[in-house]
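Researcher: I'm preparing a figure for a lab meeting and need a structural model of a single chain. I don't have an experimental structure, so a prediction will have to do for now. The sequence is pasted below. Please return the structure as tokens so I can convert it later.
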Amino acid sequence: MAPGRARRSMASSLAPAFVLMAVGLSCVHAQAPGLDTWCGLAGFTPSVLHSASQSCTTSTTCPSADNYWTSTSSTLLGAQNCLLAGPLATGEPWNNPLQSACQNEVVQFRLADSAFVQYGSISVFTTYDHLLTLTVALDGQVGQQLMYNSGDGNQGIRLFLGDFFNLTTTPPQYAYWPNLVSSDKFTCMTLQVNLQAVCNPLTSTYIPTQLTLRPVEEGGNYGCYCNAGPMFQGFANCPPINMTTPGFIAAWSLQLDIAGYQNTAGGCGTTPTYKTVGSYNAMGTGGIIGLYAPPQCSGPVPPLPPTPPPQPAPPPQVFWYSGF
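Model: Understood. Here is the structure written out token by token.
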């Protein structure tokens, strides 16, 4: 056989194998970013392991904006995607040093539905610059995965903050509805409110605009929009509350209208089911209202403690032979 013909015969015999190999590789899917780390975590809900969730058992391709608890990038919602303050030395899920919280105080509340079934955690702490920081972390579920979809008009977040000693049945003044952030799904999200200027739920609602977000001396009202009176009437009728005064007790509640998604290797599914969760039973009495006494801190964040030096190597072992 001529050399040229032999080369052509070999090439033609290899071609089908190469095509089959390429087709096989094209069927391999890439799982969602951050999923590997999240699947190795135990949930905040007792006895829940993310590895048993449908998202992990199917290596889902359904992405979350927070990369399944692993992203702290900024969003328009108020702070970071997922800010979890805790002992960094113990590893995930903590991604922010405990020292960033005033007096190292981070309080964990159950994220539950009205039947008190837990689905994750609400962590609450105050920063040294007086930002109340609330992080909602959704645990993995065996069936549909609960996620907050900022692009779905049926979903939203409602936060109530008020003076416990002047508490009335008023609607939440902080309502975070879709389109305040990118149209993505979240398994973890962080909200932040300036405790030195909290919208009074008796008189105002948080409506962030270029005008209202300015401080009072610049003609605004820290995002607080008066409930009564003509549009843009003087904000003196609804001044915000300073919750950083010593002895202040805040009443708070947080509710989320979110959805369960059929997370699989094929994506997020197309028929979500809706559910309301929040700080139910926050006081242990079956209520939605919880109490929070903001800790007193000011000034810069204290430096992290120095990393302890490595332990010295053990001395070499010496064996003695005594003979016979």
